[in-house]
Amino acid sequence: MKNIVHLVKLSVGTESVDTLESWQAARAASHPDGLPYHVTRMWPKRGEEILAGGSIYWVIKGAIQCRQKIIRLDEVIGEDGIRRCAIVLEPALIRTANAAKKPFQGWRYLKPEDAPPDLPKSRENDDELPDELAGKLAEIGIL
After folding, report:
1. What is the pLDDT of residue 31?
2. Nearest residue to 111 via CA among 4, 25, 26, 23
């Protein structure tokens, strides 16, 4: 069995899972295959482990709140001539239990055992808690 590793990334300026979804849908239209993607300067050294079933876990307002399956890693060359990595994602955002996460630069690897669990289907449409309350509950491990 192959080792799997995930990525965790801050979604800077995102207010909620819904706003991330809307922003990605608008941007995906400009991608050749219509899939959402995130471009990063650094190419993951553990690409094989990521592509073995990894997801990107999105940090929104100080907590991991959702994830997306990673489909592939594409090379893109910016207007400045610098090689970058486009992390191509499945369109579906899968809500997770909130898990507090302090700010950091770029992305980080996330071991499967450290990833928050997906929310059960019955809770996917729950009303979102106020950011401050959700953050405090995540800090103490309740959410």
Report:
1. 79
2. 4
CB 99 within 8 A of CB 58: no
89 strand-pairing partners: 70
Q: Say which residues have a Cβ less than 8 Å from residue 90's Cβ, sequence separation at least 6.
A: 35, 68, 69, 70, 71
Torsion of CA 95, 67, 137, 142, to 10 degrees: 70
Q: Which two tokens stand for residue 134?
A: 């959700």
pLDDT at 28: 84
Dihedral in degrees, nearest 10, Cα atoms 121, 126, 132, 134: -30
Mean pLDDT score, 77-91: 93
With beta carbons less than 8 A apart as the criterion, state whether 98 and 123 touch. no
Instruction: Note the pLDDT of residue 139.
Output: 59
> In terms of C-beta distances under 8 Å and separation of at least 24 residues, what long-range contacts does 72-81 make, across chains too?
73/43, 73/44, 73/47, 74/37, 76/39
Tell me if 55 sits within 8 A of 6, measured CB to CB: yes
